[in-house]
Amino acid sequence: MFTGLSAFPLTPLVNGQVDETAFLSLIETLAAARVDSIGALGSTGSYAYLSRQQRARVTALAVEAADGIPVMTSIGALRLDEMLQLADDAQRAGVRGLLLAPLSYQPLSQEEAYRLYERVALAVSVPLCIYDNPATTGFTFTPDLLRAVARLPNIGSIKLSPSGAAPAQMAEEMAALRRDIPATVTTGTSGDAQAASALLAGAEIWYSVAAGLWPHDMRALAEAALSGDEARTAALNASFEPLWALFRHHGSLRVIAAAAELTGRVATPCLPEPLQSLQGDARAQLQHVLALREYR
Amino acid sequence: MFTGLSAFPLTPLVNGQVDETAFLSLIETLAAARVDSIGALGSTGSYAYLSRQQRARVTALAVEAADGIPVMTSIGALRLDEMLQLADDAQRAGVRGLLLAPLSYQPLSQEEAYRLYERVALAVSVPLCIYDNPATTGFTFTPDLLRAVARLPNIGSIKLSPSGAAPAQMAEEMAALRRDIPATVTTGTSGDAQAASALLAGAEIWYSVAAGLWPHDMRALAEAALSGDEARTAALNASFEPLWALFRHHGSLRVIAAAAELTGRVATPCLPEPLQSLQGDARAQLQHVLALREYR
């Protein structure tokens, strides 16, 4: 399940409660667009802000509405026992994969992070995706740790954070990682603004925030890049540049949340307080970008 | 309550449950040493790893056992509604202050952080301590934000992270901050290895990890520094340098947890998994340091 386009929808909230109708509608759009998988509770789905009960419920709703498309969900938490409980809940709900980021409050040592992946990997029966996201977790995998974790049992993919490297360098990094990890573990990219380059450089799956709201457009881009069609990839990617500029400047979550609010896909506000979607001038800029073309 | 020596004890865990007997014994030691206040659920008390129920229980135990010494507790959480619930619980338990760090998963904007302090400050009836700890929260206060938050109602203190500046520079920074914030808001220091310098430079309270285990020794150091006795401060501080070296290298939590384990004050292991106290060579080094003198 860890190849192609994986769409990461919002979990819209109203006064701290999940807006189930709006969430189901988002999932139905993804199912209709036949994305390759759905990341029901990624960072974009605010997993870290939800209770165990809310996470179990959202996961179950996603699996039901996904129309057979594989669903994965995050089991990240600060305590190991919570991670294991969340993994049980998610597997019971029928997920086909589990996302695990090394959340931290006290910064984790490399050894602590290795041990936590080991404990979880040995306890689960569906594949794990190693979720590398230093901007949210504060944790940076060393290259050695990433490779060691990728060799554990039950690892299906690595969701890499944007490397910031130029295309040639990115291809080298991706090839080096590819050589060092089992063939059963795919390399994936996040950071939508750089995803096209990463896919051309060898990433096998795009974990996409924008696809959670606009799966058709992002599927076109993913297909172009995964087939190696550089010209078409560049043209499509350039057409999304006004969006990527906002993602780079404000973070993808605030932009996609505001876009969902502005287009009536979710109620306003949809993020858990104290987080806010785009406000003021930035929101007006997004409104302008959305008026220039129809995203779908 | 936000002056002098504030002791931050561990919350010892056994299989994820609070070891209440061990915790009460730590609090009783602090009460007997007459520290100026007790920070029952600081970072050292693993507040971020505990459930709402556990936090309420630990806070109540601390207030009961503190023998009249003012207790403060952390209300940090990712969601605003959780922070407000935790504040209610803590106030009901009889705390005299609330610690609030801007926890984050999605990095908070300065504006989001301001609004969250504003919302909480207006909702509580005991003073708040602004808890600045970028290493754990991933959030950095700009100087402007720190000053703006300090001017909100119900702010009692600022718990600053170690500045890393040389003494003269530190005194200037502290004086500049002091001029810009209300007289009712004290400036406090954390980071035990640098605390003596910060107190000599003008900080009015030391939020101390080491005092949570060894209140007598740290009270002697705090009193020397707060009275401006530079020679005595330097001598005492030098005597603790083997400890501070370990704090700097491994983080204070892992060292103090291992020290509590090694001296039988708590069961082993006492930290929430995946966190580990010092292991291997580092633990042996600590054992050697503890054998050189009796800390109390």
UniProtKB/TrEMBL annotation, chains A, B:
<dbReference type="InterPro" id="IPR002220">
    <property type="entry name" value="DapA-like"/>
</dbReference>
<dbReference type="GO" id="GO:0005829">
    <property type="term" value="C:cytosol"/>
</dbReference>
<comment type="similarity">
    <text>Belongs to the DapA family.</text>
</comment>
<protein>
    <submittedName>
        <fullName>Dihydrodipicolinate synthase family protein</fullName>
    </submittedName>
</protein>
<keyword id="KW-0456">Lyase</keyword>
<dbReference type="InterPro" id="IPR013785">
    <property type="entry name" value="Aldolase_TIM"/>
</dbReference>
<feature type="binding site">
    <location>
        <position position="44"/>
    </location>
    <ligand>
        <name>pyruvate</name>
    </ligand>
</feature>
<dbReference type="Pfam" id="PF00701">
    <property type="entry name" value="DHDPS"/>
</dbReference>
<feature type="active site" description="Schiff-base intermediate with substrate">
    <location>
        <position position="159"/>
    </location>
</feature>
<dbReference type="GO" id="GO:0008840">
    <property type="term" value="F:4-hydroxy-tetrahydrodipicolinate synthase activity"/>
</dbReference>
<feature type="active site" description="Proton donor/acceptor">
    <location>
        <position position="131"/>
    </location>
</feature>
